[in-house]
Amino acid sequence: MKKVMLIIIAMFMLSMNNILASDTDLFFGLGAGVTRGMNEGIPEERMIGPVIGANLLLTNSFVNGFASEFSVNYFTNGTEEYNGFSQYETTHITFDLRLRYYPWQESAWQPYAFAGIGGISYSVDENPPNYDPGSETSGVSLHIPVGAGLTYFFNETFGMDLNLSANATGTDNLNPVWDDINDANWMGKLSVLYRIVRFEKDSDGDGLTDKEELEIGTDPNNPDTDGDGLYDGQEVMEYKTDPLDPDTDGGGVKDGIEVLNGADPLDGDDDILSIGVGEKLILKNIEFDVAKTTITKKSERILGFAERALKTAKNMEILIVGHTDNTGSLENNITLSEGRAEAVKAWLVSKGIEATRLTTKGEGPNQPIVPNTTDANKQKNRRVEFVRTK
Fold first, then answer.
1. Cα-Cα-Cα-Cα dihedral of 34, 37, 43, 48, to 10°?
2. Nearest residue to 47 via CA among 190, 141, 179, 185
3. Which of 24, 36, 104, 142 maximizes the CB count within 10 A of its CB?
């Protein structure tokens, strides 16, 4: 019986492990039915006994169309009288794990076939005076149900299940007659199913169900739709970033790299913490007094992230590049952009960063990121860039 229990546990774990592979429902069933012994007693004397039972049904547990079922039943087999040679009454409790196969799942009516393995606990309550003295009147043995059934789903929550089975056992002790044939029985049971929980399909294992991914527009077959190094589920549920945008805060560094480096993927001002050698970062919100190189107090918060990065990565060296829009003469804009780059360097040096780690350059209006056609675009072009050189 230990081997049987190990098989049941292994099958159950395998089925649970596959929950994310398909839409899976866990149903609880409670039912009643009838049973009759197969080779127990004289056929015309065998009575039909009552059955009550419960089961847990996990649909689509391995692949689509297969369901795992854990079933427990309490029933009696016997004869109408108990004085004859082969007359008896026995109480049984069975427990088993079954595998159902549903060939058609498109409609509310779903026929299936099943087979299982488990154990049967029996107790012979009525024996004739001349029963075989060597037989055991109670015990536990192997139980193997095989049969077919029909499930009808009223809706997503409730269903009805009817199944018929032949139940073989590994013992000849369920009735008082030893005949070199292990005892068995027939069983029919009608159950009501109630869905306890649904496990929605998550094809790519990213933490979002396929249904959720279709709703937000991500790819249900790609765990990292935007390629930023974070799973779509992480972005939606943990970091609150956009799984369709690799750089949610628009700071120039992918969300996954920011998270890896301890930066905030929702704050573009701290992306400097995550840039690599040869990469550049646009500090969009660095502001200066009009036509001057004086840094505003508002900009000091952003430069504070640069200070933090340079103090953390002590081997980091930065080229600070100033840019302007095209308003005014080229010569004045080059001079202004150089002065602003020098002002940023001076601010960082005043905070304890070695001047040898910082170089500056002014590009004026020569490298616009958008056309200088509107005030908004000109604002974008007035910027400071950090290029990591080491």
1. -20
2. 185
3. 24
> For residue 62, which amino acid is it?
F
Angstrom distances, CA of residue 136 to CA of 32, 153, 171, 172: 28, 43, 10, 9
How distant, in Å, are the alpha carbons of 267, 287, 347, 350, 352 from that of 303? 13, 11, 8, 12, 13
How far is residue 286's CA from residue 374's CA, in Å, rounded to a whole number?
A: 19
The values of phi and psi at residue 372, to 5°, are -80, 55
DSSP assigned state of 296: P
pLDDT in tens, 72-111: 999 999 888 877 777 888 999 999 999 999 998 888 999 9
Q: How far is the C-alpha of 365 from the C-alpha of 265, rounded, in Å?
A: 29
Residue type for position 376: A
Residue 134, burial from CB neighbour count under 10 angstroms (0-12, 13-18, 19+): exposed
Cβ atoms of residues 10 and 20 within 8 Å = no
pLDDT in tens, 217-239: 999 899 999 998 999 999 899 99
Which pLDDT score, from 0 to 100, does residue 5 have? Answer: 53
Strands 383-388 and 318-323: antiparallel
Q: What pLDDT digit, counting tens, does each position of 273-298 carry?
A: 677 787 777 766 677 766 777 777 77
- Residue 371, beta-bridge partner list: none
| Residue with the two structure tokens 């649970």 | 16
Q: Both tokens of residue 265?
A: 């993927």
What is the C-alpha to C-alpha distance for residues 305 and 249, in angstroms, rounded to an integer? 15
Q: d(Cα 183, Cα 167) in Å, to the nearest integer?
A: 9
Centre a 10 Å sphere on the Cβ of residue 240 and count the other Cβ atoms it contains. 11
Measured CA to CA, the distance from residue 189 to residue 347 in angstroms comes to: 82
168 with 81: CB under 8 angstroms?
Answer: no
| Confidence band, pLDDT 50/70/90 cuts, at residue 168 | very high
Distance between CA atoms of 342 and 293, rounded to whole angstroms?
A: 8
Token pair belonging to 109: 């009516």
pTM of the model: 0.57
